[in-house]
Amino acid sequence: KKNWCEELVRSTDDYLSNLITAKSYIEEKKNDLDAAMKIAKELKSAPSLRTYCDLNQ
Question: Taxonomically, which superkingdom (predicted)?
């Protein structure tokens, strides 16, 4: 029973660690998307900026 409890604690810790990693990754991608959306909105309102921006970045 003791080994089972230790394994459960280990598994829970691993799960939480993976969740934190996934959350960080998702937040990073969301921030990247927010930045891209901001640039797109600015380009939409000022088409003359298009020549200065590489939209593929």
Answer: Eukaryota
Model pLDDT, residue 56: 59
Let me know: does 20 contact 13? Beta carbons within 8 Å. Answer: no
Phi/psi region, residue 47 (left: phi>0; alpha: psi -120 to 50; beta: rest), is alpha
CB 40 within 8 A of CB 47: no
In this structure, which amino acid lies at residue 11? Answer: S
Determine if the pTM surpasses 0.90. no
pLDDT tens digits for range 15-50: 999 999 999 999 999 999 999 999 888 877 776 665
Q: Report helix, strand or coil for 21.
A: helix
Q: Which helix (H) or strand (E) holds 15?
A: helix 2-45
